[in-house]
Structure prediction request, 120 residues.
Amino acid sequence: ACMNIPLDSANASGSGGGGGDGKENKFDAYLLHLIKMLSDDQTKDEELSELFTEASHMCGELVDVTATAVRDAAEFAAETEDAYHIRLEAFRSFMDLCLEESDLIEEQFRTNGRAAMKIG
Prediction:
């Protein structure tokens, strides 16, 4: 069924501005063209070689795009982790300060409590 789809109609739907990714549509149209050429008995070896070379380049581009996306995601995760550690350290410092203040309040209560007991 796919082999009967003319390349021109695949390009017409793939290169328009109607949503979807342009590279993805270009790749889909190219795959349809490749299938058509493979199913054609009159295709020459040179043409097939060119088609496979182009397919190889397109796959390489997809690998590069994917690698870039993974690298960007890893960098974002590292930045998020750094921000989390900064917040965690700030919270720890705040809690240490609260602990010191509560120890001071407790010590004052004990000292003033003893004084109050002596007076009473």
